[in-house]
Design goal:
This is Peptidase A2 domain-containing protein. With 133 residues, the chain is mostly beta strands. The chain has two helices and twelve strands; from the N terminus they run ββββββαββββαββ. The chain has a single domain, classed as Cathepsin D, subunit A, domain 1 (Beta Barrel). The strands form three sheets. Strands 4, 5, 6, 7, 8, 9 and 10 form a seven-stranded mixed beta sheet that branches. The chain has a three-stranded antiparallel beta sheet with strand order 1-12-11. Strands 2-3 form a two-stranded antiparallel ribbon. It is globular.
Amino acid sequence: MDKKLLTIFPYYKNPEGQYFPIIPLRLGYQKRNIDSSALIDSGASISIFRVDVAEHLGIVVEKGEEIYLGGVGGRIKGYIHKLELEIAGNKFLCPIVFSYEYLVSLNLLGRAEFFKRHRIIFEENKRFLKLES
């Protein structure tokens, strides 16, 4: 039987006193790495990160596969790239969209690949999440 690793992440508290399930992670692309963080978003089918993350990793955003994403805020054009993610010691390839039209300050960690590889338990009342990998 495989032994699962359980990691507990306290929710991040913003200056307005609101709490969010934001976790630290490391992204890797062609021997470059960057430490970042992302909001776990069970409503997002794919992860979307700010363009400055791509620039730090030396990614040419427009060389990815073009995609249009729709949501509550409307529709945006982005480009899919496969990056190595490391979360709680677990490394895996994950599709990530970069978009010049994504102007939110938070990176979003969506369902594609991430949710397949982890059991995620949101403890809203206790303001933390459990991640089993």
